[in-house]
Amino acid sequence: MSEHDKREEKVEKKEEPGRVGATFIKYAFITVILLIILYFVANYLLPMFPGGENTGLY
Predict the structure, then answer these.
(1) What is the Cα–Cα distance from 30 to 22, expressed in whole angstroms?
(2) Prediction pTM value
(3) Which pairs count as long-range contacts for 11-20, CB under 8 Å and 24+ apart, including other chains?
(4) What whole-number distance in Å separates Cα of residue 14 and Cα of residue 30?
(5) Which of 8, 12, 45, 53 is the most buried (most CB within 10 A)?
């Protein structure tokens, strides 16, 4: 093996726990808000359209 085959790469892993935690909290809140909006749409807005459960056409 020549020297060209033996190539070492140094990868520096920078961890910033404060930024990782803040990012996690931010995306967790976005997920919770999105789930609340989807719950509202599924329970209140979709039944208003024709063809929902309570159409009263029996």
Answers:
(1) 12
(2) 0.55
(3) none
(4) 25
(5) 45
